[in-house]
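Re: your question about Alpha-mannosidase

S., sorry for the slow reply, the queue was backed up all week. Below is exactly what I fed in.
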Amino acid sequence: MSTSSSIHLIGNAHLDPVWLWQWQEGYAEIKATFRSALDRLQEFPDFVFTRSCAAYYAWVEENAPDMFEEIQLRVAEGRWIIVGGWWIQPDCNLPSGESFARHGLYGQRYFQEKFGVMAKVGYNVDSFGHNAMLPQILKKSGMDYYVFMRPEKHEKELDRNLFWWESEDGSRVLTFRLSDSYSTSWGKPFEQKVQNHEEMADANGHSHMTFYGVGNHGGGPTIGNLEAIKGLQEKLGKERIVISSPNRYFAEIEAAQPELPVLKDELQMHAVGCYSTHSESKENNRRAEHRLLNAEKFASAANVLLGHKYPGEQLKLGWENVLFNQFHDIMGGCSIREAFRDARESYGEALHIAAKALNSAMQRISWSIDTMKPEIRTLSKDKNWLSWEQGDCGTPLVVFNPLSWEVEVPVHANRKMTAVSDEQGYPVAMQTVRASRTNGQDNWDTLFMARVPAMGYRVYWCYLTKEQEAQAVESPVSAEGNVLENAFLRVEFAANSGAIKSLLDKRTNTEVFSGPGAVPLVIDEHHSDTWGHGLHSYRELIGCFTDAEVKVLERGPLRGIIRVTSRYNGSTLRQDFTLLHNAAELQVKVQLDWREKHKMLKLSFPVHVEQPESVSEIPYGYIHREPNGQEMPGQQWFDVFGKSRETGEVRGLAILNNGKYAYDVLGSEARMTVVRSPIFADHYGERDDQVEFMEQGIQEFGYALKPHKGFWHQSDVVRKAYEFNVPPVCVWETYHEGSLPQRMEGLRISARQVAATVFKQAEDGDGWILRCYETSGAAAESDIEVPMLNRSWRAVFGKCEIKSFFIPADASLPVQEVNLIEYR
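Result:
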């Protein structure tokens, strides 16, 4: 019999570390499942076991070292096959691009260190959808192949289950979709499953993979499974029924070189509700991702500039916490309530690790800046109990910018000042604003505009009593009645509904909306389980927030704020619409007190264009999607654009967020999904009076509206989304001598479309890693310079290409390009 259509049987143990149980139970089940697999390897000489998830191995190494050594021997023997290469099987839409890079970095390096091998096969058989940039991320993490199961056939038609999957940059991985379950604990009888797969293999003219073993709560291949395989082999032959691994399967396919289709698309959709469940975990994920990156950047700078110890092990622990919580049943919001309490603790540890590392690095830098003034002889707080200012010398506030381009942003200083100047003594524009405290008369702070270099810092001098004329604001913001206005935008609110009645883009003299904007829509979702199984959209409108109160909070000159408070049943939505004097974006700070059950809240934005198109950020890239009303996952921004109804020119609206991950676009109407309140871990179960609903109570988040002329990639949408998510960080200082100047630029990148996301110590400790990616979908050449390392080079980026540069500590060695696991 020819092996061209053999059945490769894959011994698998699908094991969710968290789902209808907490991680402690998953921890125990992993040990028992690994023991069972080792027992099968002893009992059946032909058996081969396949296992992913570096986190599981790390637990076994920690808690069952003798068994870990046994696994090492089986890996060396070639009968325990390591796949996946990632820390966990994550949700494959919601983590950032850099999180996917870290899954590979920490997963693959762990496997290499402990077992002397790295995974060749990407392996996410239970994840609910797969973003379109994964082929590049997989290839650059050492994996040429990919296995998945969802979306299944009824959710996405494919030409066949074996195909080349290609990302926007041109990277390809050979990909296989399971035609049914990853286990034999549910679904068709085993023999029937194999027979069906035989028919598929014969029809396709190439081999097929069939997974077996008890799954979800572990277990893996059973004695009964292996006895049944013996019978099938006796009946059909060992060439036809092969005890195998994904590695062997893909090697056979590549050797046979069958003609296969190429798919250049995302792999969606399975569970559309998972992108809006459990807002707290999703917001913590976004904050932790950015804070860890910020900590790495300034810890690297502090090490280079001052020899400050780089906290590599602590930061790695923080990342491991984040990566674990990206497991698809945690990140997807479909686990039990107790599991999310655990996730809160884990994210808290990651956030605190990052906060400590960031603070330590920034204060080491700020303490080394020369802030001494000739009048100062010694430190004393004679003037003010809260500040070290003497006379009218001012107090230095060091403003750090983690982003890879210069930013001009408002800085909120928690003191009331009479003046602020830059490091050269030039006054800057400022405004007195309400503080978060109510301490006698001390309830006012200062807002001022700062221009801070890329991945660097700048000192601003803040004065308690000095009279100094502030820099004039050429076009101050106006906030009167129901109208916010600056030189770029005019925003008018409807008095009773609180919706945006008019959003006028003064640059083009056109209305951004075709109807009321920022309308809070309440959607019925009684028909949905927690996952949103079987659904494509949420659009069953049952009400709106109304009974609005519109109130001016701030009147400029730098910033105007109008607060709109509206209500629905027992829920309250408070939106603070903010307009800066120099910005063409309307920023919104939201507090929601949500008391609804089996309902969803969306914010509606009907964009005033014809022939609409939609595009969204995905991990380290973007994707165009049909504006068909389907619920979709997104990251920091999505955009609706088309032709102006008046002029025919292209224009659009980008909607930015700092922690929301779901949206839909129908025609030219964009809707951002804010919250939904299903039952915890409800798979259409019995809905009695003992169930508990998600999302009850207060949550806070932010979004921003950025109208633009031209296409999204011509309008700084990517940069503005990062700026919205990564504000500057500040340190109050005092007078001291130091080796560092009062202004420092950490990075220069000549190509505007290239962004740097990572500056960290190399895992081998012998240099530095700078990671950049092309953001707009067009090839680019760029000069890159890291002044603190006295290094510069030129790089060529393909469309949507991710590049990682290793900068050796030895300055005589050249900068080299490396992959995501930092191998050259």
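DSSP finds 13 helices and 45 strands in the chain. The two ends are 43 Å apart (CA to CA).

Happy to talk it through on Thursday.
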